[in-house]
Amino acid sequence: MLFRSVALTNTTTLVQTVGESLTLNGSLSGPGGIVVNGTAGYPSLTFSGDQSAFTGTFTENNTSAFTRLKFNSTGGTNATYVFNNTSIDAEAVTVGTNTVNMGALLGTGILRQDAVGLTTLSIGGLNTNETWGGILQQGGSGNLFAVLKVGMGIVTFTNNNTYTGLNEVAAGTFEITSVQQTAQPLQVDDGATFGFMDTGSGQSAQLASIELGTNGPSGGNLFFTNIYAGGVAPISISGGLLTNNGVCTVTLADTANLSAGNIYALVSYGTYSGSGRFVLAPLPGVLVGGLINDPSSGGLLLSLPLSTTRTNITTTVTTSGGVTTLDLAWPSDHQGWVLETNNVGLNVSDAWGVVSGSEYTTGESFTVDPTQTNVFFRLVLP
Questions:
Q1: pLDDT tens profile 296-309
Q2: What's this model's pTM, rounded to 2 decimal places?
Q3: What angle do CA 330, 332, 338 make, to 5 degrees?
């Protein structure tokens, strides 16, 4: 059965007969809503028309006898879509290589990409805070899903979404939790924010790569909530690339699970690229710390030393067997400070480099090369 255009002013509950096939080829508009409940015989409902003037809410409930729902259109930027059916073939988009717009994506069901090509799901256009507790999945190897976060609201994904396409955060905040175990590449555009919420599971959220900032200089930002001292980085780019192209502001919503005198990994990565820098927003509460980006150890670290007061470095020089060794040491309450070295000149600010791993110790040793007469060291609070 075919329908042309439908204008909704109230909420309509759709009831289909056994095996019935309905297709809306015309436009869907108005502030009303559609509620789809399950019907025996698995009837189908296909939306193929324009939904740009639809400002209401579409809902499919979770029932054992369900309607096979297909979106063969570009959706509605001004509408809310609630997918609650958890059957794997109940809810699908079938536009192939195209963009499907959903002003808000809600629910706990499964939304599957069921056509060959890359479908980009654009969400957040309503500028509201929303939570997707369901699963976005790909119906086959050639049916690819990607997510584009738009709008100034916060969109949170709380489940393990199993698609493999790019997550691009164009505006506002896109947040995942430690439940996310399928690695996807991430791009955080200038001024946008990527967020992470730790569920206390003791596992890292998995990402394939992260690119922070596109054109600079503002860069893409990071936001962490409920970080636990579990010994693992909240975000893991397993063997992948972390790129920072601008100024990335890192914010912690809370520090209740953290304590002074420790170093916490925030992001672990395989390789690092970019000329950007990381800036730590003031921490809530009484803790004071800084960020250490240590590519040699593959981590973006949060350091919370016991002391934030400047101290002196103790030097000891020994010679044995014709080899001269320089030992540097600093007080134990300054563990978490970083030793930096410079073989150019004291006043050349961009010549200082981190001695990798020094943040975890209170001393370092170096073999003295008598031909190098212009080597300097300093201890820095991150």
A1: 888 999 999 999 99
A2: 0.91
A3: 55
